[in-house]
Design a protein that fits this description.
36% of the residues lie in helices and 25% in strands. By secondary structure, the chain is α+β, with helices and mostly antiparallel strands. The chain has one domain. The strands form two sheets. Strands 3-7-6-5-4 form a five-stranded mixed sheet, sandwiched between helices. Strands 1-2 form a two-stranded antiparallel sheet. A hairpin with a 2-residue loop joins strand 6 and strand 7. Helix 2 crosses helix 3 and helix 2 crosses helix 4.
């Protein structure tokens, strides 16, 4: 991840990036979390959503907004992620979407993984829309 011309280290990203799941379950271990953070740190993108999409190998991700603070990306099917590590594929096999919460007044970012399916996405969007009160 870049900030201006400088790369942000994985240690710094780890410090100010929170990772959770919409359903409250944690479907990953520390090694998988470390791979996710390292993938984001290795990205040349400047936004958290862009770095996350890059980590999952999405060249032209469809990112949609829920207000000014929330960006949601659809995660690829792990079958189509042959060039990525098993650690990253784990996230895409357990979850269908990822919401990135960052922006004005928020230090760092929160990444929330959302289950597969349209109903899970709709439920998450409804809950995340409440963050519009912060903008």
């Amino acid at each position: 991840m870049k900030s201006g011309e400088d790369k942000i280290s994985a240690d710094n990203l780890r410090t100010f990036t929170s990772i959770s799941a919409m359903d409250g379950r944690i479907g990953w271990d520390q090694d998988q979390r470390a791979s996710l953070i390292q993938g984001m740190a290795d990205s040349e993108k400047v936004s958290f959503a862009g770095c996350l999409a890059d980590t999952f190998g999405l060249e032209d991700p469809k990112i949609f907004s829920v207000g000014p603070l929330v960006r949601i990306i659809a995660l690829p099917n792990p079958i189509h992620m042959e060039n990525l590590s098993e650690d990253i594929k784990t996230f895409a096999s357990y979850y269908g979407y990822a919401a990135v919460i960052s922006g004005h007044g928020i230090f760092g970012a929160e990444i929330i993984f959302i289950n597969h399916g349209a109903l899970a996405l709709a439920t998450a969007v409804e809950a995340l829309a409440k963050l519009n009160l912060l903008s």
